[in-house]
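== Sequence and structure of one protein ==
=== Format: two labelled lines per protein ===
==== Data for this protein ====
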Amino acid sequence: MGNIYGKNGRKEVKPLLVSIHDTEFQVDKRLSAIVRKIINEGWNKHQARYGEMICDLIGHDLLVTEVTSRHVQAIRDYLEHEGVSKATVNRYYSALSKIMKYAKEREDIYGLEKIPHISWEYEDNARNRFVDEDEEKEMTRIMTAKGKTDFLDYFYFLMDTGLRKAEALNLVVDDIKTDELSKQRYIYLTKTKNKEDRTVPLCKRALEIFDKYAAGKSKDDKIFQLNYWTIGNEWNRMRAVMGLEEDKTFTLHALRHTFASRLAQRGVDFHKISVLMGHKTLSMTKRYSHLKPKHTFSVVNVLDNDRDNNSDVVTKLPIDKHIP
């Protein structure tokens, strides 16, 4: 093989030709092109779908430099007309913000000098944000790829038990008990926010996580030996990779709401959810009532049955011809 280095010991290379004029180096500034670029660079599928829908709404061929505050308002007006939630509007905005920031950070390429103002929707139940199944899969993929499975297991544990951050960090091996009759294993919490003891049964995944981290430890050893602040940092890094850095409701506390929300969606009654969550009042739990509207649907059967049983009586009533 020939010598690839010159007399001065440096590798001989051809100079790179970098065009700086648009006439020589044309960049595709369309929104759809930028979305494709971000996807190719690792934008998660869940958030990318919102990016693609942004293009559907305001135009695939619209240039990023042509996006104005009127487009932002048009997106909101359309979504509100469709009856979507404020949280969903913010997810669209998060995708739009991602697209615009991508171009702004490469101003010399795309020529975007200013990002139009995005007025985020105020969510009355912002802290009720929960993790959907696609987001959970994305969390798993990201944290596994980064080799951060210890943090991922901690996130899973919060999601499957509804424990607060500090409650889970304070758990020791001896806090996990076994019911003598059912053999169900559960957490017996004494260090809670409202100073009241409570028990939380362990599902299969939560139990596997406990067994994994309790192995070889004494009864007074903490189950999760993670730094309080590092947990938050890892969550924020993961959230950024997921493309949800603008979604301020996607916090670690959302895992606790995920626990309650999934129980509500599967028909568990509010009293049980309230006990498991350690809520002081049932009204705190009823924040999740919109997730299980079917629990009220059966009331119409009472009215229908009542009318069916009295149909003969109704048909036999005399008709007053003088009633207009």
Remarks:
- The chain is about 50% helix and 5% strand.
- The chain has two domains: 31-123, 133-290.
- Residues 295-300, 313-324 have pLDDT under 50 and may be disordered.
- The beta strands are 176-178, 185-189, 198-201.
